[in-house]
Amino acid sequence: MSVKELQTVNFRNLVSEKLLLHSDLNFLIGDNGSGKSSLLESLFYLGHGKSFRTTKVESLIQTGFDTFIISAKSDENIQLGIQRNSIGESKIKVNGVSSTKLSDLAKNIAIQIVTPESFKLFFGGPKERRKFVDLGLFHVEHSFSAEWKLFQRIYKQRNACLRNKKTLEQLDYWTEEFCRLSETIALFRKEYIENLKSELVNWLTIMLPNCSNDISIQYLQGWNSKKELAIILKENKYKELEKGYSLYGAQKFDIRFLIDNSSIEHRLSRGQQKLFLLALTFAQTKLIEQVKRIKPILLIDDIGAELDHSSRKAMFKANQLLNCQTIISAIDRLALEPLIPDDNNYNMFHVEHGKIKAMIE
Ligand SMILES: Nc1ncnc2c1ncn2[C@@H]1O[C@H](COP(=O)(O)OP(=O)(O)OP(=O)(O)O)[C@@H](O)[C@H]1O
Ligand SMILES: [Mg+2]
Question: Which domains does the chain have, with CATH numbers?
Fold first, then answer.
């Protein structure tokens, strides 16, 4: 799907006007602090019910107001909307019908994003890498979100048991469910990573051809995969009680991307890492499209950072093949140069003090 109309009300610094988007390619240019990331953030919020920059809803609401609204109309005239207020209440609407479930939005829209902060995927802790994989799973594995939410609840309960040295019966009770959910989640992740790997190679061939053959993905499910988690926990019961938290399980998942057996961050330059990250996002986008049968929308914030002319050209080629609605932001037109097609088949917007104006080229 693609979004043809997007409107935000009291979101960040954005002026509340309707934006008419191109079905394929859209560019946003504007100075620092003009509102480019905020616009991409609004669309991301509509797809995920959360921001990629903050967990605090009050940061998203325009100063002086207490509610924001984001709404969009798709190319098939599906109307989606989300409203949040400062005390955390939310309203969701799909075609005018109220819903309480974020999944009702996610059924209709899938948003993928690459930002300069996406580098956290390589340099940040395992939490960021887990989030990347789980975000893909959120779209491709219908029951994943519910299982993960339940797992987190059980994980907290189990940790509380270990910390407070509750009765061993209580610990055993939580451990059983903890193991069951960890095994289910590990299976989902394993399958997803295998699919991601084969798709990734296709995109690397276009964007980083010299590396595409030597890539491997290593992942740790959170415990020794040759053993059952229940047995490991039994063997380590007293160690866990001593530490006061769970030492093994799905919360310990991590993933590493390797080239010739050395990690990406040690092997690739910063620009190459960005291309790798784009290839990874394109691979994830393709997987989501195959499973959900809706085309995701791709957001790329600040494309100029780190990419030279030929890298941007490679990215342009890949983007044409991906064939999804794309919104790309940059500080100025120069940074977009090789990405702008000759056929005028795109929209260009200028962002200034939260106001977004279509530019006639
Ligand atoms: N809740 C809010 N209410 C009003 N203004 C806000 C709010 N949150 C952020 N802003 C302001 O919105 C402006 C736009 O921020 P945004 O991150 O979208 O800029 P940008 O165009 O992406 O800039 P850069 O090129 O530096 O990345 C900033 O000046 C910021 O201070
Ligand atoms: Mg920005």
Answer: 1-110+294-361 (3.40.50.300), 122-137+144-286 (1.20.1050.90)
